[in-house]
């Protein structure tokens, strides 16, 4: 494992990340609930969001494991990358073909991307906090709190 000075994410950044995740998911779900579309369409958009969140967090974890020299298989990395790209492509294609106003399409796209970004930020904060906790338990280690 590489030895770098650990930086704990600031409390403000941790709270902002969680707030962005909750707001993004809530906006997306409220938009789906209020949408005038068939139930199977709503289900498609819900699954696209859940698939995107899972694959983005999985990709972030895989990349972080590789940075910390934790063994990760190439196939898992490629599947995570392909899944993340596929989730975005599936949503873009569905929005392109949907009979929605342009403003609604933009709303779903922005809420989706905001949720993906926030999920990655929350996962990163969890990993950073865990690495700082592990590092603090070893002697002669300085921990710096800073913003990302």
From TrEMBL:
<dbReference type="Pfam" id="PF05360">
    <property type="entry name" value="YiaAB"/>
</dbReference>
<dbReference type="GO" id="GO:0006974">
    <property type="term" value="P:DNA damage response"/>
</dbReference>
<dbReference type="GO" id="GO:0005886">
    <property type="term" value="C:plasma membrane"/>
</dbReference>
<protein>
    <recommendedName>
        <fullName>YiaAB two helix domain-containing protein</fullName>
    </recommendedName>
</protein>
<feature type="domain" description="YiaAB two helix">
    <location>
        <begin position="76"/>
        <end position="128"/>
    </location>
</feature>
<feature type="domain" description="YiaAB two helix">
    <location>
        <begin position="13"/>
        <end position="65"/>
    </location>
</feature>
<dbReference type="InterPro" id="IPR038972">
    <property type="entry name" value="YiaA-like"/>
</dbReference>
<dbReference type="InterPro" id="IPR008024">
    <property type="entry name" value="YiaAB"/>
</dbReference>
